[in-house]
Amino acid sequence: MIAPLLGFGIAVAAVGSALADAAQDCNGREGSEAIAGCSELIRHNPQDAVAYYNRGFAYNELGEFDRAIADFTKAIELDPKFASAYYRRGFTHDDKGEYDLAISDYTKAIEIDSHFASAYNGRGVAYRAKGDIDHAIAEYTKAIKLDPTDPDSYNNRGAAYRAKGEYDLSIADHTKAILMDAKFANAYSNRAATYYVVGRHTQALADAQKSLELRPGHVATLVTRGSILEALGRREEAIADFREALLLYPEGQKAKDALKRLDALP
């Protein structure tokens, strides 16, 4: 994930000490503090593309996607070669489920910077969401070639391989991601899902347990662990996981279906 842009030293000197705190907040804070700092910089300099970018980043983190998109768009208007602004706007469109718009923005970021690994990864996520598995795998592979140290691209490609039924490749990619980041909860969860599909239930359970230790209460992982426990004949433990998942996310159809199958609906 691309972080807010750094390097406000020159900008701080230019605007003077009165705006130093605002620049620091815009650059280094999160949420409402970052928004307030960036807004103050923009008030004094409406041509500050980086301040719009950083404020858009903060809005995105707060789930205010339309405001984020508006700020990224303004940053692009001020600096049409601002590849990171295209990337972040694409990321926000992705969050909104606007996958074609996301792909368009990721593509523009790549046109500006052909070595932008995160943009290839993001474009892969959007293609995956659209059901284009082969195209997604190709994008993740490009991202990995450009940045072989990013565990996220391996994890995403592993999930795509599972969707395609290429389970050995899926496990290999998730394992690679875990070797890079031993606290990558989503990679453990994804590898657990693949192990479950291929019937390696003991290994699947160990990975699901590890994922939930790192990220307690994650609904999808609770459902995965419940399914594994059910396959192992541990009915009551499975029911407990499905019920917890349903409590956390009452609209969860997989948990409902599992409890119905186990004759354990509330």
Account of the 3D structure:
This protein is mainly alpha-helical and 266 residues long. It has a domain at 1-80: Alpha Horseshoe (Serine Threonine Protein Phosphatase 5, Tetratricopeptide repeat). Helices cover 76% and strands 0% of the residues. It is built from 16 helices and no strands. The protein has helices at residues 9-15, 20-28, 31-44, 49-61, 65-78, 83-95, 99-112, 117-129, 133-146, 151-164, 167-180, 185-197, 201-214, 219-231, 235-248, 253-261. Helix 4 runs parallel beside helix 6, helix 8 (117-129) runs parallel beside helix 10 and helix 14 runs antiparallel to helix 15 (235-248). The model is unreliable at 7-13 (pLDDT under 50).
Could you spell the SSE succession in H and E letters? HHHHHHHHHHHHHHHH
Superfamily at the CATH H level of the domain at 1-80? Tetratricopeptide repeat domain
Strand content: under 5%
- CATH class descriptor of the domain at 1-80: Mainly Alpha
**Percent range of helical residues:** over 70%
